[in-house]
Design a protein that fits this description.
globular, alpha/beta, 15 strands, 9-stranded mixed beta sheet, 381 residues, 14 helices, binds flavin-adenine dinucleotide, FAD/NAD(P)-binding domain
Length: 381
């Protein structure tokens, strides 16, 4: 007989899990609780690399194909530092509107027979005592996690850089990063198109810029307008806010991912940093692993949840390590910007230690050739 599964949160992790569980042959009863209406969401567009879509295929190729069909596509990346633009021969990438992604997932969930309850905010887990499994897919401020804080033992690490997710109607041909230094500090804009005339624009600054420009004393609309001034060179349309609050990076991680019949996936498990690939993709991969573990071990839920953590955790740990190195690099982006532009980009590309110079020669030969040429010219001067 199938399990009764309660999923808190209808973000990418919760919805993909609901769909995958209903797709299996076990006849699980799946109910998803979401505080927002079905057609509301924050954020703008979500990026997937070609590799990420390939991984997600392990869950449902049909669904992933539908997501891929709704994307804007490009290859390569432009990294601009203090006005010098350096093209990178990076692989293909895809971006989809977050709301559209959620709607595709919702539609698949309904067709597969998952129950979706919107406009229900859970304040505690008391009403879920009838369920065999409670899944915390409720994001960075998870109620499932805080209800069992003694079991999950979460820790919070707060960084000093600040960031906000905006949208803009500016059309960017390729995924781009714009690093700038002002008289006070450093800024970075990460911008990519997810509809023909809509792009995500993640704006970030270091603490020196935050304080030096008085951003700490501005309200959110003043910060948005100020960001438009800072990034005027790469914006031909205003920044659009959708709960776009400037916050410091906060990384929540958990000592354990399961406790009794409760388990965490996605951002509830560990918040992601966009500089290392999308949190959306990691969240959806967690769902694939949890679904597999529940399919294989439905007769012993705590053992199945332990198996999920044992299998998925080492993979996430590797990415977490890379994410931490990446955040550390961003925290010192002002210092890195003192490097020559090609050295700066090389430092950026190798910041997580996963990409070595050897791999760069294989995967981004055009950039490496240009890098070598510039450096040999400099040493001949
Ligand atoms: C402000 C912001 C903007 C972002 N914008 C982008 C973007 O443009 N592109 C991108 O790639 N990534 C973006 N991200 C990151 C990305 O959203 C996450 O990494 C990814 O969505 C994680 O998926 P998830 O399903 O684990 O969590 P989420 O997508 O956060 O989903 C969790 C869901 O749980 C619901 N929920 C929470 N608590 C309760 C409760 N008590 N009861 C019921 N429901 C509850 C929430 O409403 C939410 O729908 C953004 C993150 C933030 C914080």
């Amino acid at each position: 007989m199938g399990l009764r599964v309660a999923i808190v949160g209808a973000g990418p992790a919760g919805l993909y899990l609901a769909y995958l569980l209903r797709q299996g042959s076990s006849g699980h009863h799946v109910r998803v609780f979401e505080q927002n209406p079905g057609n509301a969401t924050y954020g703008f567009g979500v990026v997937f690399s070609e590799r990420a879509l390939h991984f997600l295929n392990d869950g449902s190729k049909t669904l992933v194909d539908q997501i891929a069909n709704a994307t804007e596509k490009w290859s390569g990346q432009n990294i601009s530092v203090n006005g010098t633009v350096i093209p990178i021969d990076a692989g293909k990438a895809f971006a989809v509107e977050r709301l559209h992604l959620l709607q595709i997932l919702q539609e698949h969930c309904r067709t597969a027979g998952a129950e979706l309850d919107f406009d229900i905010r859970l304040e505690s887990l008391d009403d879920l005592s009838d369920f065999d499994v409670i899944v915390g897919a409720d994001g960075a401020n998870s109620i499932v996690r805080s209800s069992h804080a003694d079991g999950f033992r979460p820790t919070l690490r707060e960084y000093t850089n600040r960031f906000a997710w905006y949208g803009t109607q500016t059309r960017y041909e390729v995924n781009a990063l714009t690093f700038l230094r002002t008289e006070h500090g450093a800024f970075c804009g990460h911008h990519y198109r997810y509809k023909p005339h809509m792009s995500t624009f993640v704006a970030e600054c270091d603490e020196a810029a935050w304080v030096g420009h008085g951003m700490d004393a501005m309200d959110e609309d003043e910060r948005r307008k100020f960001s438009e001034e800072v990034f005027a060179g790469v914006l031909d349309s205003p920044l659009i806010s959708n709960r776009s609050l400037w916050n410091p990076w906060r990384i929540v991680s958990n000592e354990r991912w399961h406790h009794g019949n409760a388990v965490l996936i996605g951002d509830a498990t560990r918040t992601a940093h966009p500089s290392i690939g999308s949190g959306t993709r990691l969240a959806m991969e967690d769902s694939i692993f949890l679904c597999r573990a529940l399919e294989a071990g439905a007769d012993d839920v705590p053992a199945a949840l332990a198996a999920y953590e044992a299998e998925r955790r080492p993979i996430r740990e590797k990415l977490n390590k890379a994410a931490s190195l990446s955040i550390d690099w961003y925290e010192r982006m002002g210092e890195h910007m003192e490097l020559e532009p090609y050295d700066f980009v090389h430092s950026f590309l190798t910041r997580t230690k996963r990409m070595t110079s050897e791999r760069l020669y294989k995967e981004m030969p055009a950039f490496m050739n240009a890098y070598d040429t510039v450096n040999s010219m400099a040493s001949n001067v």
